[in-house]
Specification:
The chain has 205 residues and is α/β, with parallel strands linked by helices. It has helices at residues 44-51, 69-72, 74-77, 95-105, 112-121, 137-145, 147-150, 167-182; strands at 6-15, 18-28, 33-37, 59-64, 67-68, 80-83, 155-159, 186-190, 200-204. A five-stranded parallel β-sheet has the order 6-7-8-3-9, with helices on both faces. A hairpin with a 2-residue loop joins strand 1 (6-15) and strand 2 (18-28).
């Protein structure tokens, strides 16, 4: 059995004076993914923010490769990619420019041919040089999701990644997540979609 890389023990999160959940525990190993389920307000986004180190939990511990994520700092964040439910792209930039800027913030330079191929894969052929403000909500979402390919990360943490996508795009993204897992990556996501991929588990908040 493959050893876990991400370990969560006795986790609790609060919002204001309300405790959203407590005593949450799970492990995630290469090739595995976790489906976070729950009603609106149950704390799904709060959990994801805690997992990426943006919101400290009220109790419990999150470890990556055996070490607390707070101690790892940037070393941990370099190995993950977090795309929030309200993740935004820069409206005045083109899809190509958005990916280049995101890569530059990560200290990387993208190969233009590979970047264009990625945008084409996400159904954006012919829109690479069009300012994002002229794209539909679904197309803007595809620009954001293209970072899954251009940003190399072991752990994907995705909040409602299928929002605003049509059926074809949902199938494409599901296949992409499957490829990531098959290559030894890991994923944690919230979604109302049925996820037919292998090696998945669900945690309900």
């Amino acid at each position: 059995m493959t050893a876990a890389m991400l370990s969560v023990t006795d986790l609790a999160c609060v919002r204001g004076e309300r405790r959203l959940f407590s005593d949450l525990a799970f492990d995630l190993a290469p090739g595995e993914w976790l489906h976070v389920q729950g009603e609106n307000g149950a704390g799904k986004t709060t959990l994801l923010r805690a997992l990426v180190g943006l919101s400290p939990p009220a109790a419990g511990e999150i470890r990556w490769r055996g070490a607390p994520i707070g101690r790892l700092g940037e070393d941990y964040r370099r190995e993950l990619l977090y795309l929030g439910h309200h993740g935004a792209v820069k409206e005045d930039l083109t899809p190509l420019e958005n990916l280049r800027v995101a890569a530059a913030l990560d200290g990387r330079q993208l190969d233009e041919r590979d970047t264009l191929a990625t945008l084409h894969r996400f159904g954006l052929k012919g829109r690479e040089e069009l300012p994002v403000r002229f794209l539909s909500a679904g197309q803007k979402r595809r620009v954001l999701l293209a970072r899954l390919v251009t940003r190399q990360a072991t752990l994907w943490i995705l909040d409602e990644p299928f929002t605003a996508l049509d059926v074809k795009a949902v199938d494409m993204l599901s296949a992409l997540i499957g490829e990531h897992l098959a290559a030894g990556g890991m994923a944690i996501l919230t979604s109302h979609q049925t996820m037919p991929m292998a090696n998945g588990r669900a945690v309900k908040l």
